[in-house]
Specification:
single chain; 411 residues; alpha/beta; Rossmann fold; pyruvate-formate lyase- activating enzyme; OB fold (Dihydrolipoamide Acetyltransferase, E2P); 3 domains; six-stranded parallel beta sheet; five-stranded mixed beta barrel; 12 helices; 19 strands; 25% strand
Length: 411
Amino acid sequence: MKVAVFTLGCKTNLYESGQIISALIQAGHEAVHGLVPADVFVLNTCAVTGEAERKSRQAVQRARKLNPDCKIIIVGCAAEKNAAQFEALGNVGFVKGVANKTAIVNEIERFGADVEQLPSIFTETVFSTQERTRAFVKIQDGCNNFCSYCIVPYLRGRSRSRRIADVVREVRQAHAAETVLIGIDISQFGRDTGESLPQLFETLQGVNTRLRLGSLEARVVTDELLESLTHVNFCPHFHLSLQSGCDSVLRRMNRKYTTDEYLHAVSEIRRFFPDAAITTDVIVGFCGETEEEFEQTRNFVEIVKFADIHVFPYSPREGTAAYQWADVDGATKERRAEILGQIKRQLKNDFAMRFVGTEQEVLVERRRAGYWEGYTRQYLRVYFQGKANVGELVDVAITEPYKDGAKGETK
């Protein structure tokens, strides 16, 4: 039968959808990514915000429109958080949580729900399908941080790391021009197995792929890690989680660093990789955030000079420590998000300007509206014309900032 797997949420979810597709194909089914007409839909859901849960429920309606007679299987974080919200929806035959998602291959004909106990060690064995241009390889799952605003540790469980040898096997098998190492919190990689990120990169020396890291915490940015990155084909792009540029807000968030410690990590990154892109996430309007605290965040992001900022208004999540705390009104959140959005756009333009007049290696991802589009090692989006193919690495001369990145020319 034909099975369509639709993904909401993070890159880890996308990777796990690829694992589901691999398992379905091995079982003899036709399986594809996306919401396309199919006999069975597997909806891999997200619960990081209330809006993400709402979109997960909406996906059920979208699948039914494509095939009113379909069967729908729900998996993932929204199912782990509240399986009952899906069980009564039309065409939903099976609901499964986060653990062992590929087991739905054996449950396509079953009905019911299965939110099993989360494992204490990394147990996945199925490699994921990969994009044509970029491979995602999951190296870790779960989280031990328990930030006061975040539901994820309660849904994904404690941090558990994949063994280095298994990671290297999948990286080699993917045969991708670029490989992104992902997880829920890869900063915790190896703490439960006696291995480490520097050891992983030492083992990846000589692998023929550009290597990119998923999100990191500032506290793991050490000379040892940065030195290990200089020995591999590393893309100097660090997504360094911030959330707030104000120490008092960071304490309420239960974030385990200060702004001074964060700035030190930034300084160390730029000492090893002067052209590195440093990107981040910022939550505005967290419980009790005052104008003075917001101004500290505003000033901090300008001091760091981020290459990009993902700005999120705070969304209370039932089950978290902060859920019962006084919230900031929606209009204030919206205003603060717009202020940071303006700063973000200026910083992105400034970052693109740094590369004008230089030649950069671009991984070509698609052609649209007369331009090829792709990303440099620093994750700067580049638009250019000339001869190229999707999945190819092309040297492009950067000529000017353009849209959300830069425009360039091939030789």
